[in-house]
Amino acid sequence: MKHEMTNSDTNQHQQTRIRWVLYGLAIACLLLITSHGFTGVSEAEQPEALLKPSDVHGSVSALTRRHLGRYHYQPRPIDDELSQQMFADYLENLDPAKAYFLASDVDYFRRNEQRLDDFLRRDDASPAFEIFNLYRQRVNERLVHVREILKGEFDFTVDEALMVDREEAAWAVNELELNDYWRKRIKNDWLRLKLADKEPEDIRETLATRYDELQRRIAELDSNDIFQLYLNSYLSAVEPHTSYLSPRSSDNFEIAMSLSFEGIGALLGSEGEYIIIRSIVPGGPADMDNRLQPGDRIVGVGQGNDSEVVDVVGWRVDDVVDLIRGPKDSMVILDTLPEDTGLQGPTEAIDLVRNEIQLEEQAARAEVIEVPDFNADGSHQNIRVGMINLPTFYFDFEAYISNKPNYRSSTRDVRKLINRLKKENINGLVIDLRNNGGGSLLEATTMTGLFIDQGPVVQVRDNQKRVDLQEDNEPGMAWDGPLVVLVNRYSASASEIFAAAMQDYGRALIVGEPTFGKGTVQNLFDFDARNPDKDQRRGQLKLTMAQFFRIDGGSTQNRGVIPDIRLPSAGDPQDYGESSLGNALPWTRIEPAEYESDTHLQELLGQTLTSAEKRMQNDPEFRYLFDDIAEYERNVERKDISLLESARREDMESSEQRRLERRQVRAQLASSVMRTPLDPPEPSRVEETADDADAEDEQEDTNDPDIYLEESARVLADIFLLQRDGRTLTPAPLVNTTTITADIPKENPLAEHPEG
User: Fold this and answer.
1) Per the domain annotation, does 324 fall within a domain?
2) Among 294, 444, 445, 533, which is least packed by CB within 10 angstroms?
3) Are residues 195 and 222 in the same domain?
4) CATH number of the domain that 440 lies in?
5) How large is the average pLDDT for residues 200-227?
């Protein structure tokens, strides 16, 4: 047993990799893929050898069941209800768009819908292989039809639409229904490329290559791939963070955990047929460029300015990783569908130069923001707000156990930054935990200790209901003044532990979005640790074994941390994060720990919230944000996409006009904010943390203001004014920002998720 994990699906080193393992096979199986020039595919009428489960698969199944029964935090009985969920999940992973199977196929499979539990007890995976073998046949049949469609032409003056949200769609009764769906699906693919100014023959070749590659990749799948998909249908029916890694997936996982990668610094996942940006690694090329954003879909990848862009719709995540990864200083071109434009397009080409992801860019950094407080006579004084950004809770474990005096930790760095900010005469402090997916549990505990005197921080309960109380035992505080913690939906695990403790103690107001809600701990079991037969490898099991609880007794699981002052954001919190995952453990509570809470900040919350709401109503950037949220909600609610070219072009032109108008306004407002970097101190050698657990117009747009950061500074200014003399003033726009950099090394890269 190894690798205790504490991070969320957004964690920069861990959870997204597991999601790749869990869903990567399904992506390869179900959707449209492309590569350079492959055309030698077999037709549907050419039979392929049927895949079958092996004796090793039976052994793995037995080990998995045994481990879940003994160690899982909340094991689930193997019964008919679980069998039904396994059946639904397996079909969903194979054919989520209901694009291949007929209703008669599914009806035939249903004879085992409530019998998979019986097969599982016998460690017999044969029903899954029966379904997959017919699935592969149906894919081949569809692709024969697709090639015929590509020989024809499309009329884009016909007012029709493609249903893109097929979750509630019925399985096709006959081939005529499937043929109509595929005609519209290919017509939409063609239109998207046409709107990107591709020539007809280029479009035809791109789409033909995509479907050829799909057939080749389906043919490459082996029995281990199918068994992994099947077993994970069982495990996901138990709980979403428990999963099985086949031997090949285990190898990829170990490489990803142990090596440093050169790439762009983005974490990838899958959503339907698309590769999606889950999060951006702070300090990486994508973060520094600022055009690529979470939620954007990657539809093509090219190498350098003169290479062909390969269409990657439907590819496995790890195959797209291989394309994006590359040598330092080399260029990669990403053809993307930005989240705010939706699937209707158009695409946007983003060129990025690959680089190492440096630890110095992952470490804590600080700045000072001055918020004007205007007097009645028009004069003003500046309220100085310290801002510390913490991308992850890092800890130099190897240096620590080697007794190196200058070992690096996030707590140590934040303490240094606080001392420097004090010399800048700050009036308050903001801790920015946006996109912080977690890291070291120890660091979350010691970081909390910088802002409380002594006391409990988090409770950890195992599968035997034993509770371990993690405490800060160091007396004194590094900062005892006004404090705000800024979070978003990608703040997870250790971030949630820290934010929850600050909220429970009454030490800080929490500002931003509800956090991710991952309050569980996973461990990795290696089934080959005592297996002498290297030719009969069995893989690994990631198993949920414990749960975090706040000191007030409530869990961070599922609900996350709810901000005291919530800033506007798109979507319902139930539609993202832990609460959106099937079979996620529910929120619950245990007995609270003994601690004392300060109610002073809560007494100021009403006035602070009123002041923030007034600013959000009047600030032009917040008005833009509200418009974007409304547009996003409209796109989310759309069940179909118009195939009328004139309508799609009108949408494109409207989006471009809105972008240009905003850029003009922002150019007039930008002069109110200035940033002046300060020289960092001399770097010291630091090892990587080993405690992580779970064109011109475009360039100008990268200078968009960070309205969440600025508003959190204004909230802090309000708190300071209320505490100082009991009044609330609406601060004017920010006038100055000074950057302070932590003591960061430059010679050691931080191991990066291999997106790259």
Assistant:
1) yes
2) 533
3) yes
4) 3.90.226.10
5) 88
Per-residue pLDDT band for 360 (boundaries 50, 70, 90) equals low
Q: Which residue has the tokens 């970097």?
A: 677
Looking at 356, 389, 415, which one is the last position of a domain?
Answer: 356
| 307 and 384 assigned to the same domain | no
Q: Which residue has the higher pLDDT, 224 or 363?
A: 224
At 334, phi and psi to the nearest 5? Answer: -110, 125
Q: Is 416 a catalytic residue?
A: no
Q: Is residue 179 part of a domain?
A: yes
pLDDT digits (tens, 9 = 90+) for 696-732: 333 334 456 789 999 999 999 999 999 988 766 666 6
Quick check: 287 and 267 in contact, CB under 8 A?
Answer: no
Report the share of the chain in percent with pLDDT over 90: 53
- Return the pLDDT at 497: 97
Task: Report which of 317, 321, 345 is spatially closest to residue 332, judged by C-alpha positions.
Answer: 321
Domain CATH number, residue 332: 2.30.42.10
236 is a catalytic site residue: no
Residue 1: is its pLDDT beyond 50?
A: no
The total number of structural domains that make up the chain: 3
C-beta separation of 223 from 54 below 8 A: yes
The answer to whether residues 328 and 262 touch, using CB atoms and an 8 Å cutoff, is yes
The pTM of this model reads 0.72
Taking a C-beta distance cutoff of 8 angstroms, is the pair 469, 411 a contact? Answer: no
Q: Is the distance from CB of 752 to CB of 11 less than 8 angstroms?
A: no
Q: Which two tokens stand for residue 150?
A: 């590509």
Residues 191, 328 within the same domain: no
Range of the domain at 122: 2-256
Which of left, alpha, beta for 455 (phi over 0: left; psi -120 to 50: alpha)?
A: left
Mean pLDDT across the chain, nearest whole number? Answer: 82
Task: Mark whether 701 and 615 lie in a shared domain.
Answer: yes
Tell me: the pLDDT tens digits for 638-665? 889 999 999 999 988 888 888 888 777 7
How remote is the C-alpha of 470 from its chain's centroid?
28
From the list 8, 250, 493, 495, the catalytic residue is 493
Active-site option among 105, 504, 564, 691: 504
For range 393-416, the mean pLDDT? 85
For residue 465, give every residue at least 6 positions away whose Cβ sits within 8 Å of its Cβ, in sequence order, or none.
none
Instruction: Please check whether residues 178 and 113 belong to one and the same domain.
Output: yes
Higher pLDDT: 213 or 463? It is: 463
Please check whether residue 35 is in contact with residue 308, taking contact to mean a CB–CB distance below 8 angstroms: no
Most confident of 171-185, 560-574, 655-669: 171-185
Q: Which of 311, 330, 356 is the last residue of a domain?
A: 356
- Asked if 315 and 222 sit in the same domain, the reply is no
**Catalytic residue chosen out of the listed positions 184, 187, 194, 518:** 518
Q: Annotate 348-375 with b (16+ C-beta within 10 A) or e (fewer).
A: bebebebbbbbbbbbbbbbbbbbbbbee
Phi, psi (degrees; rounded to nearest 5) at 320: -70, -35
* Residue 408 is assigned to a structural domain of this protein: yes
Give yes or no: 518 in active site: yes
Kindly state whether residue 756 falls inside one of the protein's structural domains: no
Nearest alpha-carbon partner for 458 in 387, 314, 556:
556
745 has pLDDT over 80:
no
Query: 348 has which bridge partners?
Result: 336
